[in-house]
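Repro:
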Amino acid sequence: MEPVVYLGAVLVVGALAQWLAWAVKVPSILVLLIVGFLGGIYVSPDEVLGRDVLFAGVTLAVGIILFEGSMSLRVAHVRDLGRPVLRLCTVTVLIAWALITAAGWLVGLDLQLALLVGAILVVTGPTVINPILRQLRPTRRVSSLLRWEGIIVDPIGAILALLVYHAVVVGNREDAVGTAVATLLISIGVALGFSLVLAVLVEIVMVRHLVPDYLHGTLFIAVALGGLVGSNMIQEESGLLTVTVLGIVLGNRPTLHLEHVKEFYEHLQVFLIGILFVILAGRVSPTQVIDILPTSLVFVAILILVVRPVSIWLGLVGTETTRQERVLLSGMAPRGIVAAAVTSIFALKLEHAADSAQGDRADALVVLAREAEGMVPLVFVTIVATVAVYGLGVGRLAERLGLATTNPQGVVFAGSQTWVRQAAGALGELGVPTILVSQDSGALQRARMDGVRTERTNILSDYALHDLDLAGIGSFVAATDDDGTNGTAAREFGHTLGRSHVFQLLREDASPSTHDRSSSAQRLSARAPFRPALTHEQLDERVDAGMVVRRTALTESFTLEDYQERNPEAVLLFTHDGTRAQVVTEDTEVPDSGVTLIALAPARESRRPAEE
């Protein structure tokens, strides 16, 4: 098969696989791995692309993915989690390394290979953590811990693997320990040096506006890949640490406004993940998997049932994490693209080392390289199994612990007008979590007296946009008295909740025409909620006229048609079917019965038996 045909097919299949995963609500990596494995039965990536080109592309793509993930890490999120994050990236890693090595040795791996596999599998990574968190949306504390661990430990695992590799190649010589220590120090020094110099240069260029906006994405790709390749040229496998540190530094500089760059990288990351998992899974043959499957399943069981819980509970002893947080962290350690890529790279390195070795070490390395061929399918099975177990099971665990929900139905309101407070209270009575964000202290106090969670802050503040805990939240309704604020807030929350779940009150200058010079561009507005869609002034006028927010149970004896006949002026706000709340819009098909309707309606009808 021609390389261009193969790559085109991978792109299409990768995109379709991720869409399918979203549609059936399963981790996308699981679908990508299965599709890639099935495709590899017919076409081998190594034969089409060649190993050198394949691994070079994988290295660059992994560097971009880690750079994107590290830019999203905010130091502010871990100011109260400094010790747990430090422990997760140090003590927990060492404990996990030792336990995974023991597990590998117990299932029959050579001790040297077990040490190498242990170093590689301490990683989790953003390619598997982020999609699960995006679907699960846990508390900010848990999300921060998992993101920091996943991104920081990835380069640490690569460096540990490099140390083991050098120790294996050197053998039992007296300078093995000294070589390993020197390798570690050089890797850290090179990574810090490259990343800090590049960060300073990028900030100077950006602050002085020496590069136009449309080239910012290109600039950051060039800087990240330049740092990755430059570091690796000086010290093997230090490049991943370089791009990680570089991303953290740039992502937290207050003088840089990188939202447009981060958005570009988010799309690029999804694109690259689809390619990488399909290609790397295609390198594993069914025969390899079948041969090692019994051993792999025992190995994975030890990782899930012993290694992760023990390393988390021992590593976080004495920290400010709660028992529930430790239990959830113990049940969340899927392996991702870094594990797959690094395993393939070091298996190839051992093969090259065996081919070029001379003397006493030659025979030993040949045997070791032959045994190392089983590392790739072992790690492949580990990735599939851990993604399946953690990705499909962590939701229920998080719900039972009260740290997340698999059905995020809560609503954030920007604004605190009377009808907003009443709507939030009505949703709360149905068990739907709500948050009122406003700077009106009096209105917020009245909302809190009704049991509504409130946040006194500007909806466009850094806190509201980046630090607000959205656990259990599924929708956003911008309902302030300023259309510009509503539009901006809706666009920002759309990045987190998805554009289909963010709404803003109908703009006063709204127009169905796209060529109307007096109205705002439609792309600057989110979806208009409620039926009929009204402006903030029109809603306030109805409240002033005596209308209130009420809950009404629609049944076969009192249907939606009956309700609207008795309340022709009512504004339909939300429906609740017993499990999920939905914002009503002009296009929503509201069921005639079987749901609870929340609407702004005249108060005179509030005593009907069918209404609560």
